[in-house]
Design goal:
The complex is a heterodimer. Chain A is mainly alpha-helical. Chain A contains 4 helices and 2 strands. Chain A has helices at 12-15, 18-43, 88-113, 117-142; strands at 60-63, 80-83. Chain B is 19% helix and 30% strand. In chain B, the strands form 4 sheets. Chain B has a 5-stranded mixed beta barrel with strand order 8-9-10-12-11. Chain B has a 4-stranded mixed β-sheet with strand order 1-6-7-3, with no helix packed on it. In chain B, strands 2-5-4 form a 3-stranded antiparallel β-sheet. Classes of the chains: A mainly alpha, B alpha+beta. The A-B interface holds A 57-71, 74-87, 90, 93-94, 97-98, 108-109, 112 and B 23, 26, 33-40, 44, 48, 50, 59, 61, 63, 66, 68, 70, 77, 79-83, 131, 137, 156-157, 175, 178-181, 185, 188-190, 192-200, 207-209. Strand 1 of chain A pairs parallel with strand 3 (35-38) of chain B.
């Protein structure tokens, strides 16, 4: 195998060809874009986060610029009204809209007082633990009378006879 | 700056601009959340306190821990979602310029009507009254309106108001007229057949069979601004008797 005496130099004619020129242009373009990016990013202002220690705001605030959203029970968004059948179309749609809004408000109020399933499970777990210690304490002071009123929201009360201890099944 | 002590729920708490709200009072309802919804008239200051910026009565709604100042003024500031009465003052290729009584005219897209397409555009002239809804409003740009319900796409009472008469009232009275428990409108409706539209921008449109009825209704609405329910009843009765 013959050794190559020198690195292959591309001839001048080759360099003037279009496909070689394209590569050159691409390279110069990339260089220019890089230069631009460098200038732009250096012009950005950056806060040194470690130096400034901002305290966390006390409240998280949402802004609502409209009075109508504030107290939904006092405002009806039904702006057009008609009385004594002056405009029957308007009257029908107004009464329908009023009914819908009333329903929505009631549902919203109901949903406010309800809790999600996860919260309910947490509450039940917590109240079961508390109940065990409470039951034992009361048994010692009361003498066996421990009845609690049942509600839907709390865990079902334990049977008073067991007193919190595990009862072995009779053999 | 003075600080306010939170009094009982039944008393009216009147605030002036510059009065700070105490933090303990604000956290009454949601102890864990620390979330607050500020309505019109309240703004947070640099030192993390909430201050009133308008004079009025401080109101609170437990749902969502909302606080706001019930104030009154005559100049309207556009807010999203409110229904307003506007007058067409200009037409362009894609927008109508509508005067809503704010500092700047609002834009109503030509296609923002029920069932409007490029081929089937509604034709409104300068001077027409339109009952529209504010679809977008902020303090930097002109407000944008639409003449239909955005969720259903139907007109739902929005659109052109033909005939009738428009009066200008204060914003507080306009909001009270929207209250479903409002007495004046129900009393008037018992005596006179009429229809009306209330714009949150302080404009009320009234249409009835005769000019006499229209004038009576407008006078009754204007008079009812500072009257309580008993006085309202007697005022309406005296007006109707004179008719």
């Amino acid at each position: 195998m013959a050794e190559i005496p020198h690195k292959t130099a591309l001839s001048g004619k080759l360099l003037t060809m279009k496909f070689m020129q394209r590569q050159q242009e691409q390279e110069t373009r990339d260089k220019l874009v890089k230069e631009q990016n460098r200038i732009v990013t250096e012009a950005h202002w950056v806060i040194d986060q470690a130096a400034v220690d901002l305290p966390k705001p006390k409240f998280q605030v949402d802004y609502e610029p409209s009075f109508l959203q504030m107290n939904a029970t006092e405002r009806s968004s039904v702006g057009r009204m008609s009385f004594q059948k002056f405009n029957s179309v308007v009257e029908k749609s107004a009464s329908q809209a009023a009914g819908d809004q009333q329903l929505e408000r009631e549902l919203k109020r109901q949903r406010q007082s309800e809790i999600s399933d996860d919260e309910m499970a947490n509450e039940m777990g917590r109240s079961n633990k508390a109940k065990k210690t409470k039951e034992v304490a009361r048994k010692s002071s009361n003498g066996g009378q421990s009845k609690k009123p049942t509600t839907n929201r709390r865990a079902p009360p334990k049977p008073s006879g067991s007193g919190g201890k595990f009862m072995k099944p009779k053999e | 700056m003075t600080s306010i002590t939170m009094e009982e729920e039944s008393k009216l708490l009147i605030v002036l601009p510059g009065d700070q709200l105490p933090e303990s009072g604000l956290m009454e309802d949601s102890s864990a959340a620390h979330r607050l919804t500020l309505g019109p008239g309240l703004a947070p200051m640099d030192d993390d306190s909430i201050t009133a910026v308008k004079a009025g009565i401080l109101k609170h709604n437990a749902v969502g821990n909302r606080w706001w100042v019930e104030s009154n003024q005559r100049r309207y500031v556009a807010a999203q979602g409110e229904s307003i009465i506007g007058v067409v003052t200009g037409k362009s290729a894609e927008h109508y310029k509508v005067d809503i009584g704010a500092s700047q005219p609002a834009l109503l897209g030509v296609l923002a009507f029920e069932g409007a397409t490029k081929r089937n555009k509604p034709n409104h002239n300068i001077g027409d009254l339109l009952y529209c809804r504010v679809s977008m409003a902020n303090k930097d740009m002109e407000a944008e309106l639409e003449c239909m319900n955005p969720t259903t796409g139907k007109a739902d009472g929005f659109g052109e108001l033909k005939g009738g008469f428009v009066i200008k009232i204060s914003l507080g009275l306009a909001r009270r007229l929207l209250d479903p428990k409002n007495l004046v409108l129900r009393l008037l409706g018992q005596h006179i057949p009429f229809e009306m539209a209330v714009g949150t921008n302080g404009k009320v449109w009234v249409n009835s069979a005769s000019a006499q009825h229209t004038i009576l209704i407008c006078n009754a609405i204007r008079n009812s601004e500072y009257l309580n329910s008993a006085e309202c009843g007697s005022m309406v009765k005296s007006l109707v008797e004179k008719m």
